[in-house]
Amino acid sequence: MSIREFERVASGVDTQPSPMAPQELIDRLAAAGDADAASAPTVAIVGGGILGVALAWELLRMGIRSEVFEASPSLGGLAGPLTLPDGVEVDRFYHAILSSDSHLAALCAELGIADQLRFAQTRTGFYVDGNIYSMNNIVDFLRFPPLGMIDRFRLGLTVLRAQMVRDWRALEGVSVEEWLLRWSGENTWRNVWQPMLRAKFDGSFADVPATWIWSRLVRVKSTRSGASQTEGAGHLIGGYRTLIEAMAKRLEQAGCPIHLSTPVQEVLIEGEGAAARATGLCVAGQMRRFDAVAVTAQVPVFRRLIPGAPAAYQKFLADTDYLGIVCPLLVLDRPLTGFWTLNIADTRFPFTGVIETTSYIDPKYVGGHHLVYLPKYTAPGSPLQQASDEEVKALWLENLQQMLPSFDPASVRFFEVHREKYVEPLHGLNETDQIPGIETPVAQLYLATTAQIYPALTNGESVARHALEAAQCIEAHLPAAAGRLAAAAASAGATATHG
How distant, in Å, are the alpha carbons of 45, 72, 355, 452, 481 from that of 51? Predict the structure, then answer.
């Protein structure tokens, strides 16, 4: 979610749903007829990831029709599925739903898929100096061998201090190193935080604000409950594909088309300077007119789509940087560590952590497989992005066996390598003014992207909330759209009642 949305949720003042139930609106729109629908403004949405589809859904709830254009043959983007060689579908990247993800839970209930949610108790561990240590509850914390008693106390104080921060802006000008040294101390910094940060940021993190660790400590704390502070995580059966397909089905029922394998070549912009206005899309060499355009792609992709935008805006967007990711998926015939997340405080290994999602996903939901993700976040220009899949496989398996001597290469059923150049937006010290807004300098052109989700983490919950905020922004500038479709739907309902 964006800064504005984050503050609204944090303050307890949440956004309100539209007054008409979505299925009721879908039924009435279907009965309203093509003539009424044709007269209502339509929004083109570029990108069929979870953000794009959720944006189309939220617009529909407001009575605004849209069309979604997705370049790939399937919906989902980073949250989409991967089909294994045996035909089983699994998440391409790792995801988890927490019990505190209230907006996502409400969305699942609204779509009738809440019965597909599953939660389980999980475990977290740390790999330090060649050993694995559980960090799953208060007892584990108090016994954590890599740190002495005073250092464990200061580590606990760091977590507690993060929960007490009420104004995250106070951390914007403080580096993550300075803040962690202040609260955790030199030993904890050197043995735990520093190697983890080096791995996460591919070496350099000098310009990273303390908001980065604060937001993570707050979210991790939300996974724990009870006096023992045991941890839990959940998922949808079928992954986020289940959520995306439920929204897509209802969108198409309401006359909101979704176009797959349909890359957008350009956003059409007419006029210059203050008179610039988005008028539609160029798709397969054809001009498609729309009343507004919303792009849900990463900022570098967005820039390529808007050559007609003002030069100053293009230059502003060029300053948005991202971490990439190289993320092999090990599909095993047995569990590996038993931990959901094994944090690696050791810079010798190429991967950032060991994420075993079948610690909370019953293997029966993923073809009886055990799924282990070994992510490596990459700085811009990292040579790992150009390494072949075979090179990555050889390097990863060699290091995994060195790290976990009990690992048996014969347990690997499949080894799938996936990579993306733009995964996690990089925010520097005191750079909130560099975050692009949803509304752009081009009239009726909107940008809804993960770079705007700050200081919250990018996950299913924050993306779904951000889709709502973007829809509210678009709706505020298309007053006729909601009015015309809502009126058509109401008229259809009245006709059905009195006919």
Answer: 10, 15, 24, 12, 21
